[in-house]
Amino acid sequence: MIRLHLRARGVPAFAAGLLVVAALVATAMRFLATRPFFDPVEARTPVLAVGPLLAAMLLGPTLAGADEWLERGVPVPWRLIRTGHLAAAVTITAGLLALAGHGDAALIRNTLGCVGLVAAGAALIGTRLAWLPVLAYVCAVYAAAPPLDGGPAQIWAWPVQPSTAPLAWWPVLAVFTAGTALYVLRGARADGA
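Request: output the structure for the sequence above.
Response:
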């Protein structure tokens, strides 16, 4: 049943895409670390923002099956399955990106935040467009965030903050908790609903 569940939700394609994203993160981090003319903190900002964004966007379609109405009619513990699915996906994604990014905790933090936004998007607008809120937010923050000054911008500009920004973790944990709870309790919005 687990293999059928994973295949029906497109997890093999997600896994292949995640490996590509992890390879891109590792390559970009290695390139930036070997260039002496880059600021070591600010040069990694695009990788810290885009890597988790791409991984979370790939995760979106796996949060619902081909026919959500049909799945809801089957008497199985969907809340438990959704929790396990999301927990496994976020653990593997954050771990793989952190490994590719030389253990940078900002990749873990941003993965949690991006996955929380995608999970909330899946529950509210469906998996077809679940990627849209996280893409809009990360792009807007990347374009509008002030220079890294350690001020209160850490709270709303968490996708572009370094791993040493302590305030950036609080909104991420709130977004991840809210998005996960919304997705686990409601499931993905069925197409045509």
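The radius of gyration is 17 Å.
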